[in-house]
Design goal:
single chain, mainly alpha, elongated
Length: 148
């Protein structure tokens, strides 16, 4: 079995998701929520959280939400985690402990989590806009084909 990723396979994958008779907003929102969950540093529990969200919020598009986990795989998310530490240089008051290791751990964790939250929110908004625009274009082309 040969597995390749090219422009046509990505296009086919997106068209299958868009053809699910869901509104562009619902598709984009589902993918954006999936993006948010997939990028969070949950270390394997993201898919479980995604399944719980799909079961609780039945109006979400399940394939769109789960496809975000395919797009935001560990090969992409791990470098984002490395970048997230360098994004936030907050100047909030830091509690100093007598144990230096604890001071470093708290500083690292705070910088990492805030930076990662910034990246996660930005990428979720961008993914919403991209999927919404792609679904809009698909609907527009579909209507043009029906007229001819």
């Amino acid at each position: 079995m040969k597995f390749r990723i090219d422009k046509e396979s990505i296009r086919t994958f997106l068209v299958k998701i868009i053809r699910q008779n869901a509104s562009p907003h619902r598709l984009a929102l589902s993918f954006a929520i999936g993006t948010f969950i997939a990028i969070l540093p949950l270390f394997g529990f993201g898919i479980i959280l995604g399944l719980i969200v799909v079961m609780v919020f039945k109006q979400l598009n399940k394939p769109a939400l789960m496809s975000a986990f395919v797009v935001w795989n560990p090969l992409i998310v791990v470098p984002l985690m490395a970048i997230s530490y360098h994004i936030f240089f907050g100047s909030a008051e830091v509690i100093k402990y007598k144990i230096e290791l604890l001071n470093h751990l708290i500083t690292f964790t705070r910088r990492f989590l805030v930076g990662h939250l910034i990246i996660t929110a930005d990428l979720s908004i961008i993914s919403y806009l991209v999927i919404r625009f792609a679904a809009f274009l698909y609907e527009l082309r579909k209507k043009k084909r029906q007229k001819h």
